[in-house]
Amino acid sequence: MPKKAKDAGEEEPIGAGRFGRCRGNLKMGLVGLPNVGKSTTFNLFCDQQVAAENFPFCTIEPTDARCEVFDERFRWLCDLWKPPAGHEIPPYLHVTDIAGLIRGASEGDGLGNEFLSTIIGCDGIFHVVRAFDDESVIHVDDSVDPVRDLETIQSELCAKDLTFVKAAEAREKELVKRDRGSKLSPVFMETFKKMTEMLEQNKPVRDGDFTSEEVEMIKMKTQLITTKPIIYIINLSKKDFLRKKNKHLPKIKAWIEEHGGGLFMPYSCEWEQEYMDAKKSGAEALEAFVKESYPEKVPPIPSALQRIIKQGYKQLGLIYFFTAVRTPLTAPAPAPAGPWLCHCPPLCSDVPS
Ligand SMILES: Nc1nc2c(ncn2[C@@H]2O[C@H](COP(=O)(O)OP(=O)(O)OP(=O)(O)O)[C@@H](O)[C@H]2O)c(=O)[nH]1
Ligand SMILES: [Mg+2]
Fold this sequence. Notes:
By secondary structure, the protein is α/β, with parallel strands linked by helices. It is built from twelve helices and six strands.
């Protein structure tokens, strides 16, 4: 298990907080084998229409979009305050749909390098895993075996990072050689040794036992894929999603626990598509569909995608704050006492007293 920073008396940063970059527009990338449902998920997340056809490598160019992060507090505030048109701005999560990765991608197979460079531009990963059986949907390795697929993706990401680590080390050694009298610091040597050992054993760097100094060294000298926070999202059939059972899930869970742990969220593109269609047909259709899906008890957030989006936001270390404009067009009730929060400081930074 990785050593927690709080062991050293510090707050443990979550998600991208440990290795992440401080910048605007942080985004999550959809990563996985071809034809597992990444683009379908992207379309459902962001209400887009990118091609999601039944053949591998349907996606070549990455697509960026943003999706609303469901937040009941924000909805409550909007209902109460009734902001003027254009001022109702929810939180958004930026997502990138990326081409599929196959075995050998780290050496350029499939869309190899193109795919990997897009992941480097993302700040976190939604790792999409296929666990639905449907013979009509082609699998690049001919059978549905989520643990094998998890291994494939993880090995490729680790193999690619190993080449980055070796290149960064060689670059540094060259600099030291040219600058006579200087030498590599013990922190550098130790950090690179640890990273190399981990990656050679197919272990992501994010799971390593690194001191704060070593984390800084990694951030300064490298740009790695396996330092990014990851959420495993498991695409099930509608039937399995609703009955909360799937023959692959226990093995997937065990694999994730053995490989550094991490968030693991089952969902179903099939069910989410029907949910979205019902939503577009109006409140009545939606209510009927949800009740039919959950005859016993409707969960507070029926869509797993909405929960996944929320977790993506959290993994990137993004925070919520809300504000409201000073004069609403109609103010049916007095504003409750602060604090007020805002998702969009440049538009509405006023805080009503
Ligand atoms: N039966 C079933 N089919 C699905 C599900 N999710 C996606 N598919 C189908 O699987 C095929 C591939 O889906 P995509 O979303 O294009 O897959 P992808 O991972 O983006 O594929 P690449 O772009 O090739 O990497 C499409 O025909 C989808 O309709 C699901 O939950 N159940
Ligand atoms: Mg695709």
